[in-house]
Structure formats: C-alpha cells, structure tokens
Amino acid sequence: MKKILINCFIIGACAAVLMGCKRDSDYVAATPSIYIANFDLRKIYTGTDVTLTTENMRGATYLRGQVISDHSGNNMPAGLLVIQNLRKTGNGIDSLRGMSVNIGADAAKYVPGDSVHVKIEGGVLKRVNGILQITGVSASDVTKIASGKPIMAPRGFANLIAALPDRYESTLINIVKGTYNPLLGPNDILAGDKILNDGSSDIILHTEANATFANIKPPFKGNYLGVLFNRVGQDGKLIPEHRLRTASDLIVRGSTADVPEFVITGFINDPAGTDANNEYIQFRATKNINFAVTPFSVITTNNAGSAPPTGAPVNGWATGQLRTYKINLTSGSVVKGEFFYVGGNKKLINSTSSTSMAASKWISAIDYNKASDRFNSGSTTTGTATTNLLANSGNAFGMAVFRGIEVTLNTIPIDVVFVHDGGSLYQAGPAPSYGVGYRIGDTDVYDVIEPVSGTPQPYFLAGTNKQKFTYVTPGVSNDDGYFYILGGTFDTVQGKWVNARSQTIYQLSKTSTVAEIEGGNATVIK
Q1: For the chain, which terminal residue's Cβ has fewer other Cβ atoms within 10 angstroms, N or C?
Q2: Could you give the CA distance from residue 428 to residue 422 in angstroms, rounded to a whole number?
Q3: 447 Cβ neighbours under 8 A, 6+ residues apart
Q4: Tens digits of per-residue pLDDT, 1-47?
Q5: Cβ within 8 Å of residue 154, ≥6 positions away
Q6: 416 HSE (CA, 13 A, CB side)
Q7: CB atoms closer than 10 angstroms to residue 294
Q8: How many other C-beta atoms are found inside a 10 Å radius of the C-beta of residue 504?
Q9: What is the C-alpha separation between 323 and 303, in angstroms, rounded?
Q10: Which of 75-84, 174-183, 348-357, 495-504 is predicted most confidently?
Q11: CA-CA distance, 449 to 452, in Å (whole number)?
C-alpha cells in the first residue's frame, strides 16, 4: 500500500496568498479616487469589449503610473503606451499590473520612467491581437507628470507566466539565466520567435525583423529584461511572448555550460524501523562516469540543535563532527541516465524487513553508524559516527556533490539540496568570504552570483538562496518511510535544469520496489 503527497517546491517563484474576510462595518467611508489601479482595471474585462465609465470604474476617470514601453528599439507593438502601477490600498497582495493604452504614433514620445496620467473614461477595454488594451483614447488624453521615476522590474518565471498570462501582461519582467531551447547555431540572430528557457519552463522571445537589435547574435546565457505581451493560439488560449525594448535590455551571463556529472534526485531520511545504516541518497548520471578515474564525494549536513560543533559552520561542508559527513566515490561506474545510490550498507528500500535494493547500482554503501573518522580529505568517510546520515529533528539537513575527494571550506559543490532552514546555517560577513556557511553551486534554484544585481551570495540562505524543500513531519506512527522524489528535468545539451525540481513525498511500504522511486515523477535526464 502506498500514498503520495505532493508539495510545491519553493523555487523562488511560488507564493500563497491568504485573504481574510471583513464585515461591512470594518470599512471606513471615503471619497472614491479619480484614479484606478491596473489591478482593478483589468478585472473589468470579462471576455467582451467594455466601455469604461465612472460607474464600472467605481468613480475613477484616470489611469496613472510609470511608462515601461520604449519604441526607440522598434520592438514594441505599434501605438501602444504601456503603463504599470501598484494598487495603493489592499491587504498585502502583490498588485503590480500593467496596461497597454493605444494612443497611436505619439506613444513613441514617451520613455521608461515617465510618470503619466491618462483620462480613460469613454475608452474601450478590449483584446486586440491578443493584447488587452484601452482603445478610443487620444494622445491629448495623456499628461506627463514627471520623468525618471523608478520602475519595478521583478524577476519573472516562465512557468508562472505560462500559468497566469493575464497576470503578467503589459508588465516589465526580467527573465533570468535564459538559454535557448533548442540551442541556437553560430549564425542565428535574435530576429523572429525564439524559445527561451529560464530553468522553470519555456517562453517565446519575440524580436521584430526591423528591431534595432534584430541582428545581434544571442548569447549562450543571459538576462532578458522586457515587456510581456500575449498572442492568441489556435485553441483560443493566450500565449505569452517576451519582447526586449532595446539592446541594453539584454545582459550576457555566460558563454558556456558547466554540466554536473550527476545530480541529486531523491533520498530517504526517516525510513521505517531503525535509521542506522538504512538512509540513502539517489542520484542520476548526466554522463558516463568511471569513479576510479574521476572520483567524486558526497557530503551530508545534519543541523540538529545539539549537533557539535554548534553555531554557524565556520568550515562549511568540511566542518565534520556531527554536522557534516563525507563519503568518497572512488570505484564503480555509471552510464548517462542511470540511477545510483549512496548511503547505508543495509541496502533496504525502507529499513528492517523491507525489499532489498542490493541489485541496484550502489557506488558507496557504508556503515555510517560505526565509521568514526574526523574530517580528512583523503579518508573514505568523514564526520563522527551517527545514527542519522540525514536529520529528522526538524532542523535543516542537506546534501552536496563535489568533484574530487578533497573538500575544504572554499570548495564549491556541483549540486546541492536542502530541506528546511532551521538551525545555525549561515552568518553574513564582508568580502572576500561574505560570511560563513554551507556553499552552494549554480543549480536550478541557487546562484553563487545573484543573477540580476551581480552581488556575490556564495552560501545557502545568503541573498536570494533561500529555497529549500519542505520537511515532512512523521504521522501517528514514526515508521512512515517517506521517500523524497525530487523530479524536474535536466537537459544535458543546454547544460542546466529546464524544469526545476519539485518534491513528491512518496510513502514507501515494506514491500515497495525500486521501480516506485525510479519511475513516475522521477527526475528526467535529456
């Protein structure tokens, strides 16, 4: 018998909004504003053209906000003045929304950062070529109030944009760490429709043939700042497209890919029965590996409150004692796409009396409950003997993969996974070390350099590196045997995750088989 529980991965990108109910008496009477926010304006459109009035705009006659369109690059839809704003009142909702206003050729007179007021009463809200816009408004209805105002340009995630195309339409979005799917050739240029992947999903990057930057050769990896528009597909659904405004909206972020030889794809931290020598980690190879020729190491970290040494890990993954445990991979081989395992020497899928996994590919199976080496870069294992290779205290635990067997506080892992963020994990500090903690590599959710600002953030919990998987609290019985299937898709041609990992918590039974954790929602290697 088995049970599957699905949890969302927190890749910087997903948020839950909780809204409470209020009674009529909780509101204070006030005079309606003459300005309407795009957040409310977009709700007026329900699929058919609608004329804007003070009645359906709740007393408003004007739209105000910051201009984000720039027609100097010849890549904006003709005649559209694109304005975004925030809702001035609310209950914590992310209210940044955009709106396109068709005023004809005069739209090109406005530049990003202009603050404008637009009289929209009497205009018609409608979709034209897929883009929700206000028509019937003239250039004389636009008043420029100021210039050089700051503009919000949040990071966009292609998977969220695809799911909510209306939410992001006509807003300024930064698509970060974008590569092309499929990869472009040496003679390709930006002109036309290209498929951009940001690690969460694909999105169309559209460049007009007469755009001033149409003939630029696309970089291998870059940040793409632009305005989101929609087109209508054959099935009537909205298809988002991302448009750069000028050549300066493209920031090159890399010319080659550093492909990890294998990635973390699953693990069990609390099997049924005893934990000692029964916990293990699942990996999947992205290329053929002979570990005798090219050795690697795997280090786990256990941050239970009493685990010594206490405090922030000043030696990072090389801390040792009960905080980190290192296993060297120096023999055996795997082929691209093959699953393999590292962990306890019992080789059982769910601890005592459960199905044997001895026939699976084990690159290292050790008695971590008795191995007592302290940190030593040349040893087979490192760390004090432990019952738990992976914690189940509720505080954070994690695992990292390193090239080679010599790991110091400065060694950067090629893959990292963390569960929860409790315990003493990170302490900020100045350059050049930027503090102490567990180093991360560039993965599906972590960035050694913050990709928008360029700020160094080399540790878990530093800067934007706060994503982690959800800790599963055991049920009534402590013998639930939950296996984390991490999923996602790693593309070896693009050299990155094209669909970020998201956990599926799979409840193993004593009779579960390896096929259950290597199929279905398992990580895909392309």
Answers
A1: N
A2: 16
A3: 177, 440, 457, 463, 464, 465
A4: 444 444 444 343 333 333 334 444 444 455 779 999 999 999 999 99
A5: 96, 173, 174
A6: 25
A7: 14
A8: 19
A9: 6
A10: 75-84
A11: 9
